[in-house]
């Protein structure tokens, strides 16, 4: 079970939105991780430095948070094998969905993209069905 953290969640969401706006304003790019990471796979994109900095910031940010006195824990309720299979399935969905949840959900909806509204509705419906099946039908 996760903890109810409305203020941290609100602040984190605002920071993500602000970062997306800054990236669009200064680079003219959408802050979708799939698109960003695709430019880091050889052959590297010409603008690879900012692409490397973006996920590096996402990795370093929790450590900065802890350094200033914050704390968090990460507990995965499933095995590492299940995490790998889940990641693979998400990758397939990203390919067929034309982007990742961060790109569609944060930036696409913010730009009022009909394709992003459809993609996010599909992501959410699949998540609801998955949670229902796992918690109520399988009983995990």
TrEMBL record:
Q: How does it sit in the membrane?
A: Multi-pass membrane protein
> Where does the protein principally reside?
membrane
> What UniProt keywords apply to this chain's record, in alphabetical order?
Cell inner membrane, Cell membrane, Membrane, Transmembrane, Transmembrane helix, Transport
- Looking at the UniProt entry, the stretches that span the membrane are 6-27, 48-68, 80-97, 117-138
Q: Which domain of life is it from?
A: Bacteria
Cell location: Cell inner membrane
Write down the InterPro entries for this protein, in alphabetical order: Sulf_transp_TsuA/YedE
Task: Family membership, please give it.
Answer: Belongs to the TsuA/YedE (TC 9.B.102) family.
Which PANTHER family does its entry note? INNER MEMBRANE PROTEIN YEDE, SULPHUR TRANSPORT DOMAIN-CONTAINING PROTEIN
For this entry, the protein name equals YeeE/YedE family protein
Species per Swiss-Prot/TrEMBL record:
Ollibium composti
Species classification = Bacteria, Pseudomonadati, Pseudomonadota, Alphaproteobacteria, Hyphomicrobiales
């Amino acid at each position: 079970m996760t903890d109810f953290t409305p203020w941290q969640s609100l602040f984190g969401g605002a920071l993500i939105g602000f970062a997306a706006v800054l990236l669009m304003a200064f680079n003219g790019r959408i802050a979708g991780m799939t698109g960003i990471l695709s430019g880091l796979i050889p052959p590297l994109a010409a603008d690879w430095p900012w692409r490397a900095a973006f996920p590096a910031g996402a990795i370093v940010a929790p450590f900065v948070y802890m350094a200033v006195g914050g704390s968090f824990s990460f507990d995965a309720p499933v095995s590492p094998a299940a995490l790998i299979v889940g990641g693979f399935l998400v990758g397939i969905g990203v390919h067929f969905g034309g982007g990742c949840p961060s790109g569609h959900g944060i930036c696409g909806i913010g730009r009022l993209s009909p394709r992003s509204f459809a993609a996010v509705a599909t992501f959410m419906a699949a998540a609801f069905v998955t949670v229902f099946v796992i918690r109520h039908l399988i009983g995990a």
